[in-house]
Amino acid sequence: MTRLNATIDRRFLLRGAAAGTLLSAVGGVAFAATPPKGPIVAEAVPMQDVRLTPSPFLDAIEANTKYLMFLSPDRFLHNYHKFAGLPVKGEIYGGWESDTIAGEGLGHYLSALSLMYAQTGNPECKRRVDYIVDELAKVQAAQGDGYTGAIMRKRKDGSLVDGKEIFPEVMAGDIRSAGFDLNGAWSPLYSLHKLFAGLLDADKYCGNKKAIAVAEGFGGYIEKVFAALDPEQTQKLLNCEYGGLNESFAELYTRTHNPRWLALSMRIYDTRMLTPLAEGRDVLANNHANTQVPKLVGLARIYEINREEGYGHAASFFWQRVTQHHSFAIGGNADREYFFEPDTIAQHITEQTCESCNTYNMLKLTRHLYSWSPQASYFDYYERAHLNHILAHQNPKTGMFTYMMPLMSGTAREYSSPDNDFWCCVLSGIESHSKHGDSIYWQQGDTLFVNLYIPSKMTWAAQKASFELTTRYPYEGQVTLKLGQLSGAKTFTVALRIPAWAKTSTIRVNGKPGLATSANGYALVRRKWRAGDEVTLDLPLDLRFEHAAGDEKVVALMRGPLVMAADLGAADDKWEGDAPALVGADLLGAITPVSAEQAVYRSNGIGRPGDMTFKPFYAQYERRNAVYFSKYTDAEWADAQVTYRAEQTRLKDEAARSVDVMHLGEMQPERDHNLQSEISYPVVYRGRQGRDARTRGFFSFDMKTQRDGKEMGPLILQATYWGSENNRVFDILVDGVAIAHERLTGRQPGAWIDVNYPIPVELTKGKAKITIKFDPKEGKTAGPVFGVKLFTATAAGTTT
User: Fold this and answer.
1) Where are the alpha helices (DSSP H) in 617-684?
2) pTM (2 d.p.)
3) Hey, how many other C-beta atoms are within 10 angstroms of the C-beta on 757?
4) What are the structural domains of the chain?
5) Residue 29: how many CA atoms within 13 Å on its side-chain side?
6) pLDDT tens-digit profile of 493-524?
């Protein structure tokens, strides 16, 4: 038995081309230096050579297969056919597919079918891929200029039309965008990127060469759009979310060897975000997270082609900052889709955490970085996010998906409908759950890396060998890799990832202590192998706490790679309790197993308001739970209760002076108060409902000014905002008269703020009600506003 040191450098920063591979010859295992033609030193074993065996990951694959077969290619093709003047064969889907981002779904569907064909060999997947590509070729021929899109545009009169009409405007320099909208279309380049990605996957996994011809034809159209723009106009265009369009053209170059596509990929470079990252500056806060991640995936792919050191460094620096300073315990990131200040996780534990697309793309980026330098630390992150977020993302009973992965205590997951949502996270979901076998095994020379412990069978073509991995991991710590077929005896290395959380590990070969060395987080077993040989790894699955980055008083409970969560009841049951806390001197010692085999534990005397049962977070698909806990000593808990009671007293006093309350975002109160709105949407954040209004929109409502028919004298209008809101500019009007010009500038990050606006007496005198209006300035948003109160002024006056 060999005790392995699994410590890895968590501060690792890959410095682009100069870094090369950090692996060296260890224990007789030669790790090649970076090849001169590119930084890739390790490659995943092709997915068509991997087949999953029974496990929750196979359950997810099977549920997703059913959903892919339920979906209709012709319904996804609706706008493609319609705008090309071809007969429509299926009714358009609802949700986002009926909005101006339409067409995104078909690209994801192409990718998902292609991936599923590689993962399972299901012939119906390939048949559908070939059918879709044939139809797209017809669409392209009918368009006549290479265009192959389905986006829509909303005109000023509210009508939805073919979104192609925005591109002549863009080429003429008329570029109007506030980040997601572009001349009346919703992130059109993002949507087009998904189609390019689908066509490339059809070629890669299904061998459909017509897909490349379609992609080149459409690429020519997009090339003309960019060719018409000067550098300043290009940056203005790239201010609108463009997904990983840079990656698509870089990949198209590798398939065709036509330098025009590499040149175009390099032109699609958002200097505002990417240049600071290349310089090693974290500028992520207040930027939309999933707008950024695909850009870095694209930079990583370009770096693999052109060896531009800044590209590689930007991708590596971004990954390190996101995974170490902006990510939650489950591996996801962002709150309300946006990055926040680094190391402030504890301030952002809400029901709007962890957009699933972010993690889908972060796993793609991780694969690129690992291929340059195969270190286990990359797959420590990959496993965390893949197991605790992606596997939680799909309900295996229904095959439906979440958009956000809520981490606020007591919040239930909300799942999509089969044919009336098609959020981006549904569409990335059908891809994520078509490829659970794509990263288990990697190869470099005569070394086989085993990075994920997912039950599976694999053929290693390079050594003409077959393997089977059997395990109940992460519920049990034993993993067995058996060599099934091998021609004769061969010498090679099997590298088993030792997670950083594993303080010890045990290796056995054919039941006996195995000779192993360690390097870069791996146990390396090099020997002359024969058919029937087995290597067994045993990992400890001890409980531990991990604190939220930046706050050691807020912790999550971990068991091996599993994030554990307190089970707070069925999702269908209402939950109105306070977030649970942990109080005591020896918290881990007071958590004991109920069923170690099922990873179920119970706290004993330390839970507040009561003790809790802990289960794996990912598997609580239809339960309310708690992931993060504030921990206290007994004295700290007593102080916290005093603060809590003082806040309750303040709220009671405010309620006593209340004249009217408006609960924005709630249907009945909005009807009762005669809500009127345009380009305004209800929102939910941190358990509170609210409403915002986007540029050229508004929302207004009536409020009572009298109590029991009596005038109440000077009144104060109070609006509640989240204190981290930034760059929101709007007017507040009473019966058409502006009483405030508000600019939210992040005045109190991480806290709710109540802002008081005194109302001139002449605006309420003699009136039983008034109309309040929130009116955003051009290009800005009003709110979100999480409730409005009208109450009497105190004798001592008011503060704002």
Assistant:
1) 634-656, 667-672
2) 0.85
3) 18
4) 17-28+441-538 (2.60.40.1180), 51-432 (1.50.10), 550-635 (no CATH), 657-792 (2.60.120.200)
5) 28
6) 999 999 999 999 999 999 999 889 999 999 99
